[in-house]
Each structure stands twice: as structure tokens, then as C-alpha cells.
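#lab-general

N.A. 3:47 PM
ok so I finally got the sequence cleaned up, no stray characters, all 320 residues accounted for. can someone with queue access submit it? mine expired

B.Y. 3:52 PM
send it over

N.A. 3:53 PM
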Amino acid sequence: MMTHIGILIETTADGIKPALNGVITAARGPEHKLYGLVFDGKSAAYKDELQAFGIHKIVDIQSDEGLLNWNPDCWARAMVDALDYFEIDTLFGLTSFQTKDVFPRIAALLDAPLLLDCIGVDLRTLTAEKSQFSGKTIATFKLGGTHYLFGIRPNVIDPQPSPVTAEVLSFKTKISEESLTVEAVKEDAGDAIDLAEAPIIIAGGRAMQNAGNFRILYECAQVLGAAVGASRVAVDAGWVPHSMQVGQTGTTVSPNLYIACGISGSVQHFAGMKTAQVIVAINTDPQAAMMQNCDYGIVGDLFDVIPILTRRLKSALNDK
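B.Y. 4:20 PM
back already:
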């Protein structure tokens, strides 16, 4: 029996978020028909990219009046309408700020179970894995009901292409009244790259000493195409905003490369980035916890190491 699975397609001004390819990979199966749910009216423009990873139907969701601007309440009710119309019983998305706002509303409307920050999903058994207790253990949850919602941790599942031929569909929803009004959306003035979804992160801790010194991390990040993060110490000191905090009480990340600069490596911080594929630590203390839990450790002053790294990277890029 064919199972219909929906995937919320999150986009930016640059197009589809790259981390979504891992979500699509997680949702695929031999008897799965994948529906990409799009809200920005650009379904046709995304066809080539989405069908390359296995999306069968790309659904352009709008209201009778046109595009639905960002409103978590309206988006949730519109998606419930689409799920019912296309007989979709399982919904996937990134564990992002947007999904954290929309998916709980959908779960409430459907009286359905919701699991966010999953690191693995098995739809045959309706189970999902999540890290628990500061990343010390992995718990397996089994879901029951008629509908199921999963938020996948960005970058934790390796995206694998699986080309199909996609069809672009239009779906009009009727939104009668709005219980929530979005009056303004203010973009973070920080990194253009979303910290939670960044493939490369360079982060600073107590050793940064002040806000101004984060400049050297931004210079290196610009060359790497990376996002800049921070430990809780740097945030509590007021050097950077909370949106940059990596850790148990900040943002959980799973980048391909995590460069920890002057970060001691507390249990809470390590819990938020331990699933990074490669961890590089730069610290003057070779006995620091982060140095004991990294793939590559550099014993040295970050104010010496980072400028050298930036120059070497620029030189390598110029040679190419």
C-alpha cells in the first residue's frame, strides 16, 4: 500500500534550504509517495532540485486571495487542509524555528504525536531516535495514532539523490478567520547562514575576551562560508546575542565541521554539537574537555591560530 508523506519545504531568498535534502532522504521508501509542501509560490522553480532527491508531487499551497504570508496559525491550518486533501498521514520537516512554531499547532489540530530534533526515523515501525540526557544516550520512541509528525535535526542525515519525475500541483485553501496576526517579521542582524543548518561553524568561548574579538571569527567564517557560534559564557557576558549560542540551552547543531575556539567544552555545550562530523578544537590548555573530545586539537592561542588559518584559506582559494 502506498504511503503519502508530506515534507514542509522551507526556503530563503536563495532558494530551498540545503539541509532539507537530508529530510527528504529520511522520508523516502519503496512504497512512499513524497509531497513537497511549498508556500512561496515558486514550486515550478524548485522542481528540478526536489525531484532529484525523490519528491513526486510539489504542492503550491495558497489561499483564494493568493500567497499565504508567514503566519504559523494560518500555515498550520492550511497544511492540515492539504494533508486531508492528498491523504497524507505523515509530515516531515527540519527542526527549525519555523517548524517549532508550526508543527505543534498541526499536531494539536490533528491530535497527533510530534517528535522534534530526530536523528533517525523508521517509518516501517513508526519509531524515531532522539538524543537524551545531554547527549549521553539515544532514546527510541514509538508513535501511535493516525497521523505522525517528525522534525529532523539539520545535517544529521546524509542527503542521497534519488531522481524521479515530479508533478507540480496547485492547492487552494480557505482560511476563514485568523486567531493570530503577524504584524512584523524582523530578521536577525547576525549571520546570514542559519546556525542550526550551517554545514560549517566556527565558535568562540571565554577566551574571546570581549565582543570586538569575535571579528577574527567572522573574517575566517567569511572565507569558509561558515556560521559563527558561541558558548554560553560568551553569551552571558553580553559579547554576542543568544541566537549564536550553541549548546543544551542554545541551538543544537550537526555541522560537517565544527571549530571550537577557546571553548573549554562543558557537558552542556558538547551536548549541543557532539554530532558534528569533524570537531577541531583550538585551546591553550591541552587538558580542556573539548581537546579530549575533538578529532583534531591545536594547542595554541586562538589569536595566533585563527588569523593564520584565515590567511592560508584565502591563499588556497586564490590558487584555485
